[in-house]
Specification:
The chain is about 80% helix and about 0% strand. It contains 19 helices and no strands. The chain is globular and about 70 Å long.
Length: about 500
């Protein structure tokens, strides 16, 4: 199961490294490239609960196989994207279907893993599961940097051999396909997908449309209203997509809240760090990937430590420690971004990674352990929906902040070089479109005063971009700080190993 979900973790980060080459070859816009990254995360969030429910109804082994096939076929199609005007829509659509495959695969796989271990051993087991699979996210940038030197299309095609091995291992595992009774909540699935998609669209397009645009707030407000309608609908449904009764457990609610605020930083970090490294530090894709390894050193060590804390003392100490360490780590890292030195930043990157490592496995495991009266697949669907929706929202909000601040700072730099305010604003938006969307920091090659002034200002513009990224990283620190306040409200305690828990659908033999 760890091998099966490896693809889903790797694909959260691998595309960010290849972004400059994808944009240059296909001519994507800044918002278009962000949607290539975000479509995957959004589909994960929108369909995770559906994946958990399908695993219950049709059996986890069958859903793992179906999810893997959907994922790998979509990967091949992403790599076969044609050039021309259809390229952006093609890539976004099949990145979304990749996310759908991952949403089917992951909850079913995790339900099998949970079923193997008793409650008293589950913390360490899932710490290993989340630690190793989470660390596989680090392989994405490294693999992406290496494959991009050949062709960026290979970052999608690499999933084919992984999927083949995953399907063989799934067959050899002999997991049972025990099913639960019930029906599929199609209206609920449609509501949650529409609500998440519309709200993230509003956040994502705020830079292009403006925060004072009615379209921005119609999307954000309309999406949140649909999600509120989803909650009301689920409370009355006979066989709901998500059994909201689990939120009556305050510990489960706080686990979900801590996951939400932690994931506002975790997955978006990969995109923003890789683009920052390639623009402000003038790093190659391979160097940008190595930069992210500092983060994962701290993450890998802390994730195992956090699992042991969970087994011995419960989730609350690990959540408090992780959110506090993460908040401090991201804040210190933000303060060092303008030093423009990769070497000077590694202690703070590792500290930020350790904070996330302390949180991820304990919060996820404690939530699953509290699945009283619900299937593990269903509860996993809830927690993973929270995680991936937070990642989508974080990418959209931080992306909007980054583009706004970068544009303002570049305008100041260009006007300081003698360019008129109107010309500076136009050029600044073009520069921002290039560097924030793909990490393309090449000086303009055109002629004329504007192009010449921009070329002369590229060193200052790289610093402008570093300063704009500080806002993003401080925002991540604030998110972890709010997560700490949620951790304080966690009631603590360990789940009773002898508590009567309904037998999970993914019971392994």
């Amino acid at each position: 199961m760890m091998f099966a979900v490896a693809m889903t973790f790797i694909d959260q980060t691998i595309v960010s490294i290849a972004a400059p080459d994808i944009v240059r070859e296909l001519g994507l816009s800044s918002s278009g490239m962000q949607w290539v990254v975000n479509a995957y995360l959004l589909a994960l969030a929108a369909f995770f609960a559906l994946g958990g429910r399908l695993a219950d109804l049709f059996g986890p082994r069958r859903v793992v196989v179906i999810g893997t096939l959907v994922f790998v076929v979509s990967s091949v199609l992403c790599g076969c994207v044609p050039g021309g005007g259809a390229a952006q829509a093609w890539l976004i659509v099949f990145r979304a279907t990749q996310g759908l495959g991952a949403a089917l695969l992951f909850p079913a796989a995790l339900a099998v893993v949970v079923a193997v271990f008793p409650v008293e051993r589950r913390g360490r087991a899932l710490a290993l599961f989340f630690g190793v699979t989470g660390a596989l996210t680090a392989i994405g940038p490294l693999l992406g940097g290496w494959l991009t030197n050949w062709t960026w299309r290979a970052v999608f095609w690499v999933n084919v051999p992984v999927a083949i091995v995953a399907l063989v291992l799934t067959a050899l595992a002999h997991t049972s396909d025990r099913r639960r009774s019930g029906t599929l909540d199609v209206p609920g699935a449609a509501l949650i997908a529409a609500g998440m998609g519309l709200s993230v669209l509003g956040f994502q397009q705020a830079f292009s449309w403006g925060w004072d645009s009615w379209a921005t707030w119609v999307c954000i407000g309309g999406g949140l209203a649909i999600l509120a309608g989803f909650v009301r609908f689920e409370r009355k449904a006979e066989h709901p997509l998500i059994d909201l009764r689990v939120f009556r457990d305050r510990a489960f609610t706080m686990d979900a809240a801590v996951l939400f605020f932690s994931m506002l930083a975790f997955v978006p970090l990969f995109f923003f760090t890789s683009v920052y490294a390639q623009v402000s530090l003038s790093a190659s894709p391979n160097q940008a990937a190595l930069f992210l390894l500092y983060f994962f050193v701290g993450f890998a060590i802390a994730s195992q430590w956090g699992g042991r804390i969970l087994d011995k003392k419960g989730a609350r100490p690990a959540l408090k420690l992780g959110t506090a360490v993460g908040c401090v780590g991201f804040a210190l890292w933000a303060s060092k971004l303008t030093d423009l030195s990769m070497h000077d930043q590694w202690p703070y990157a590792a500290l930020a990674g350790a904070g996330i490592g302390f949180v991820l496995a304990p919060a996820s495991t404690d939530a699953v352990n509290r699945a009283i009266g619900a299937s593990y697949g269903e509860v996993t669907g809830i927690t993973q929906t929270v995680r991936n929706y937070a990642a989508s929202v974080g990418l959209a909000i931080y992306g909007t902040i980054l583009t706004h601040v970068t544009t303002d700072k570049v305008v100041g730099t260009l006007t300081g070089e003698g360019m008129s305010a109107s010309d500076a604003d136009t050029v600044a938006r073009d520069v921002t479109e290039s560097i924030t969307g793909s990490g393309d920091s090449r000086p303009p090659t055109g002629t004329g005063p504007a192009a010449e002034a921009t070329r002369e200002s590229m060193s200052a513009i790289r610093m402008d971009f570093a300063e704009a990224n500080q806002w993003v990283f401080y925002g991540m620190a604030i998110a972890l700080g709010i997560g700490y306040l949620c951790a304080l409200r966690h009631p603590g305690g360990k789940v009773d190993a002898n508590a009567k828990v309904e037998e999970p659908a993914g019971q392994a033999r």
